[in-house]
Model the fold of this input.
Amino acid sequence: MRVVIADDEPLARERLRGLLSERDDVEIVAEAADGQHALHACAEHRPDLVLLDIAMPGIDGLEAARHLAAFDPRPAVVFCTAYDAHALSAFEAEAIDYLVKPVRAERLDAALERVRTFAAGRERHGEAGTAPGQSRSHLCARLRGSLRLIPIEDVHYLHAEEKYVIVHHARGEDLIEESLKSLEDEFGERFVRIHRNCLVARHEIVELKRDSEGHVQAVLRHGKQPLEVSRRCVAALRETLKHL
Done:
């Protein structure tokens, strides 16, 4: 079992490292002190399990888990935290187990056994979907074994193309392997649909206009060119703009 340990406390990482070192079937492939570095480590090493603290600086453990749910293959997540107040949120993020610090050897053994059961079930049945819960603060683009985290407030619009979504953002464009529908469900307060294959950040829309052929287009604050608005979305979009 390949494991990534993610905790901002060096002593907590040391304790987990010591407990895992006693197990011949476990290999620690990376350690991280925050959620962002944990995600990079998982993209690079493709672990079977992430032992994940919840309260970490920047991207916390709960948000990291929501990103990991979209990884393929998806690693199992076991939260290790000093507080039990996050238990419900942890299982909403589809964690396999929830360990309270200081982690005891017998509880870690039980968690590892649950991870093995999870892995065996995944091999038999496959899996799909992402974890529910609070909206993420970043999108995650996979880049040849690494990744790029895109702050959601930097996203101008999302355009679906075959099995990918192109994220147009303040620093350029990136591909993510998520469906436009799932992004709309998660970020519906921030984005509005203008076409079956396009979501636009509400604050990016400057005006609607018609081209020479009578088609409605959305002019964006940071767009290089207007985007086509489908006829079925025009009425709802005009209503949305009244309240911006």
Observations:
- The mean pLDDT is 89.
- Helices lie at 10-21, 35-45, 61-68, 87-92, 105-125, 180-187, 231-242.
- Residues 105-125 form the longest helix (21 residues).
